[in-house]
Design goal:
Helix content is about 10%, strand content about 30%. The chain has helices at about 40-45, 75-80, and strands at about 25-30, 50-55, 60-65, 85-90. A two-stranded antiparallel ribbon has the order 1-4. The protein has a two-stranded antiparallel sheet with strand order 2-3. Strand 2 (about 50-55) and strand 3 form a beta hairpin. The model has no long low-confidence stretch (mean pLDDT about 90). One iron/sulfur cluster binds next to helix 1.
Length: about 90
């Protein structure tokens, strides 16, 4: 059977990406109390600028979405896709 290459994933290298200029007019804000650390926004962000960070909450370690605002373009995809409505787009 012939195997064909049907797709590929290219790792995004932020160190080679240009920083967002001052044209962005909205920015995502993560509500720490609503964020469950599920990682959905990480998968959907087209700029790959969201990571999960550990945080201590009520003596337990939980994960929280952390957005690199130097590179975020303010597209709002993360806010739409978050299943817990933990991201709101706010004016800059
Ligand atoms: S999708 Fe929402 S709940 Fe999940 S990690 Fe992102 S901000 Fe947190
Ligand atoms: S607004 Fe767009 S670029 Fe910024 S973190 Fe959300 S999905 Fe990524």
């Amino acid at each position: 059977m012939n195997k064909k290459l049907v797709g590929a994933t290219i790792e995004h290298d932020l160190s080679k990406a240009p920083k967002t200029g001052n044209w962005r007019n909205v920015r995502p804000e993560v509500d720490k109390d609503k964020c469950t650390g599920c990682g959905t926004c990480v998968k959907y962000c087209p700029e790959a600028v969201i990571n999960l960070r550990e945080r201590r909450d009520d003596s337990k370690f939980k994960k929280l979405a952390k957005i690199d605002m130097d590179f975020c373009k303010g597209c709002g995809v993360c806010a739409v896709e978050c299943p817990f409505k933990a991201i709101k787009m706010e004016k800059e």
